[in-house]
Amino acid sequence: MTSVGKKEDDYYRLTYTLTMEFARTLSRINSGMVFCYISGSGTDSTEKGRIMWARVKGKTENDLMNLPFRAVYAFRPAFMLPTKD
């Protein structure tokens, strides 16, 4: 999800709220599973930086880690190139 052209409220709803509702539902169904989250390079785990998208991604990562999954992994790729395969 790109933050380009989005207000913070919209980006927060699409990135944080949607992800957390999905993850909470999964953790209730099966807390023994592993949750993998694709975040982004430059994510701000302190949630206090000046870059909006990085704060939202950091909060999402932090709150996912507190859910009762067997494990949570946050991947932070710097770039993803779509292919036609």
Brief descriptors of the model:
85 residues; alpha+beta; two-stranded parallel ribbon; 2 helices; 2 strands; 12% strand
Extract low-pLDDT stretches: none
Total domain units: 1
The largest sheet, given as strand count, sense and whether it forms a barrel, is: 2 strands, parallel
Secondary-structure-based class equals alpha+beta
Average pLDDT works out at 95
Distance between the termini: 21 Å
Number of helices: 2
* N-to-C order of helices and strands: HEHE
Our estimate of the beta-strand percent is 5-15%
Order of strands across the main sheet: 1-2
Q: Tell me the radius of gyration.
A: 13 Å
Strands, count: 2
Overall shape: it is: globular
Describe this structure in words.
This protein is of the alpha+beta class and 85 residues long. It has one domain. Helices cover 42% and strands 12% of the residues. The chain is built from 2 helices and 2 strands; from the N terminus they run αβαβ. It has a two-stranded parallel ribbon. Helix 2 (52-65) links the parallel strand 1 and strand 2 (71-75). Helix 1 runs parallel beside helix 2 (52-65). It is globular. It starts with 7 loop residues before the first helix and ends in a 10-residue tail after the last strand. The mean pLDDT is 95.
Topology record:
Layout: H1 8-29, E1 34-38, H2 52-65, E2 71-75
Parallel strand pairs: 1-2
Summarize this structure briefly:
The chain has 2 helices and 2 strands; from the N terminus they run αβαβ. By secondary structure, it is of the alpha+beta class.
